[in-house]
Specification:
The chain is mainly alpha-helical and 105 residues long. It has 2 helices and 2 strands. Strand 1 and strand 2 form a beta hairpin. Keywords: Membrane, Transmembrane, Transmembrane helix.
């Protein structure tokens, strides 16, 4: 008796949406930049001394970039949600009866 595995049908590749990728990459880059700008412009306290090397403008730019990154990230999620389509389930290949009296339906 020879047991053969039935091959599973290959899924068709899903094309990448360039707008979705651009929004995702841009949102990630802007959020990372905002985090760096905010961390660089924070005040530090070392042994009771308050060291303020950052500027108010730097903090404002960091907050602005953080808001812009959140808007781009929200846009990425909206584009993803609008373009989402459920995939068809993978259908199993039915084994034939090889000449028996039953009909395959």
């Amino acid at each position: 008796m020879v047991i053969m595995a039935t091959p599973t049908p290959a899924r068709t590749p899903v094309p990448l949406n360039p707008y979705q990728w651009a929004l995702g990459v841009l949102a990630s880059a802007v959020l990372l930049t905002a985090l760096i700008v905010l961390l660089v412009n924070q005040t530090r306290e070392i042994d009771g001394l308050v060291i303020d090397e950052g500027s108010e403008a730097g903090r404002a730019i960091g907050v602005f970039l953080l808001g812009a990154g959140l808007v781009l990230g929200t846009g990425w999620m909206v584009v993803s949600a609008l373009l989402w389509k459920p995939r068809e389930p993978v259908r199993r290949v039915q084994e034939s009866d090889h000449g028996t009296a039953t009909l395959d339906r």
